Hints:
The chain is mainly alpha-helical. It is 68% helix and 5% strand. A two-stranded antiparallel ribbon has the order 1-2.
Amino acid sequence: MDDDILSRAFAALADPTRRDLVARLTLGDATVGELAAPYAMSLQAVSKHLAVLESAGLVSRRRDAQRRPVHLEAEVLGELTCWIDRHRIAAEARMSRLDDVLRTLNSTDSEERPS
């Protein structure tokens, strides 16, 4: 995944309202009005949040007769998850190696101490 796309996606998800919108879109497509219903903000404010998500590639909008449903681009979330998992696995491997070194040092110290 391109670093610019990754940066835009993480920046878009830094806002709790946008994370909530993404979470709600995992249930299915919805209109701006449907997405705005639980918030104490205008449709225009919700649309601005959606525009940020759209520019990050996380959502798209399409025309469906008179409706313009917002659609979650799940494959982009999958790419973010792969990026996070790759770094999580590397960090866990480093921590595991550190645990092994510390265990070895502790057992060596125990063996060297007089009884």
